[in-house]
Amino acid sequence: MKLAMDEEMQTVLAAGCQKAISPERDRTQSRVLVWVVGTLLVGVMVVELCLLPWGKMPSRRLWEAAAFSFAFPLLTWMLHAATGPAAALGGVICMNLLLVQPTAWLDTAMPALLTLFVLTFAATRFGRASKEAMGAAETRQGRRASQVVANLGIAGLCAAGVPAAWLAACVAALAEAAADTVSSEMGQALGGRTWLITTGRRVATGMDGGVSLMGTMFGVSAAVAVTAVAVLLGTISPGTALIVFGAGVAGLIFDSVLGATVERRGWMGNDWVNFASTAFAAILAYALAQLASRR
User: Fold this and answer.
1) Residue 92 to residue 43: CA distance in whole angstroms
2) Is beta strand 210-212 parallel, antiparallel or unpaired with respect to 194-196?
3) CA 195/CA 282 separation, integer angstroms
4) What are the pLDDT digits (tens) for 166-184?
5) Residue 259: how many CA atoms within 13 Å on its side-chain side?
6) Cystine design at 282: which of 70, 85, 105, 173 (Cβ 3.0–4.6 Å)?
7) Per-residue confidence at 192, pLDDT binned at 50, 70, 90?
8) What pLDDT score does 17 carry?
9) HEC states along the chain?
């Protein structure tokens, strides 16, 4: 009897993870995202390299940035945290983050990115067996290129901005990405009651737009961690921390709303939902930081 109940529960959970969008349409949307945003990321990196004050900048710093941008993605690939193409795009994003301040990497968003990696790496592997039973576990090869672009692309683009508001937008996008991934992974692993964010109706764990207490708590904690690291290491000022954290959490809520609406209707795949949510967090943080700087 218990075995039959377990099988029935797994069927219900797996049904909750089924996507409304067709696989073919989802793949097409993801390819478009990779090519468009990936091209922009490479373009930003090239522009940053061309604008560097080569005569005044220590060449050692540039080589260190290049070495780290090669070694860290290679590590993620070796840990099966990312596929080869995803790791390559991650290297471009690392260069974008580091080149904006080639003389002091702690002044960049790289510490926030490393925090995101540690949190999401641990959350993805927590309760893998139960997530595999649901059909919601990440593949053994790691995250795809579209997932890297969806979660980190906005941060890589914002990193090119010189004013402090752009840096706040970059960290806010990373805080949202960490919050979204951790909340989803931990929520699916721990289970518990899940409600559709737009109606409050009970839904199966893993359903698009579904939120749970535990998942939300872990997601908000991830946003706190990313923001705290950025503040403690001097990436952003203490006065900007609340803006970054608030924008990250707002992006997390926006992600759930998109999941409950456009994603559940099959109009938009998960990669585009994640990309839109990080963009929302970045735009909100930039606007609030600019407003605060004028006061």
Assistant:
1) 10
2) antiparallel
3) 27
4) 999 999 999 999 999 999 9
5) 27
6) 173
7) confident
8) 55
9) CHHHHHHHHHHHHHHHHCCCCCHHHHHHHHHHHHHHHHHHHHHHHHHHHHHCCCCCCCHHHHHHHHHHHHHHHHHHHHCCCECHHHHHHHHHHHHHHHHCCCCCHHHCCHHHHHHHHHHHHHHHHCCHHHHHHHCCCCCCCCECHHHHHHHHHHHHHHCCCCCHHHHHHHHHHHHHHHHHHHHHHHHHHHCCCEEECCCCCECCCCCCCEEEHHHHHHHHHHHHHHHHHHHHCCCCCHHHHHHHHHHHHHHHHHHHHHHHHHHCCCCCCHHHHHHHHHHHHHHHHHHHHHHHHCC
Pair of tokens at residue 226: 């990313």
Q: Is the pLDDT of residue 204 over 90?
A: no
Q: What is the mean pLDDT of the chain?
A: 87
Q: Which tops the pLDDT comparison, 187 or 278? A: 278
Q: What is the pLDDT of residue 103?
A: 62
In angstroms, what CA-CA distances link 178 with 87, 163, 286?
Answer: 18, 24, 18
Nearest CA-CA partner of 282 in 166, 188, 135, 129: 166
